């Protein structure tokens, strides 16, 4: 099992989750197509897209879920039906990246 970032992150990108993640498994996906597809505005800083969790790096600690102020993070087995597409989005966005791309998009408490 892993945790998944879902629709409420679009237009938010609060990053409180990143601050508590002990393994730095969050990635900043700056793709406006998700904002357009799900009818979400841009983040307060004007950035499109959302954060996602790499399923192979997540250690299932759950720290991020309770920190998310917009309730965008769920355990993959508990994602509400209306957000099920986001399980695949988190997987596809991270598992398809090269090591260089992962390094360039990784969010840490120091680099969000």
Keywords:
single chain, 112 residues, alpha+beta, Alpha-Beta Plaits, three-stranded antiparallel sheet, two-stranded antiparallel sheet, 5 strands, globular
Polypeptide structure, described:
The protein has 112 residues and is an alpha+beta fold. The chain has one domain: Alpha-Beta Plaits (2-Layer Sandwich), CATH 3.30.70. The protein is 31% helix and 14% strand. It has 5 helices and 5 strands, in the order E-H-E-H-E-H-E-H-H-E. The strands form 2 sheets. It has a 3-stranded antiparallel beta sheet. It has a two-stranded antiparallel sheet with strand order 1-4. The longest helix has 11 residues. It is globular, with a radius of gyration of 12 Å. The mean pLDDT is 95.
Number of helices: 5
**Whole-number mean pLDDT:** 95
CATH architecture: 2-Layer Sandwich
- Alpha-carbon distance between the termini? 25 Å
Strand order in space, largest sheet: 3-2-5
H/E order of the elements?
A: EHEHEHEHHE
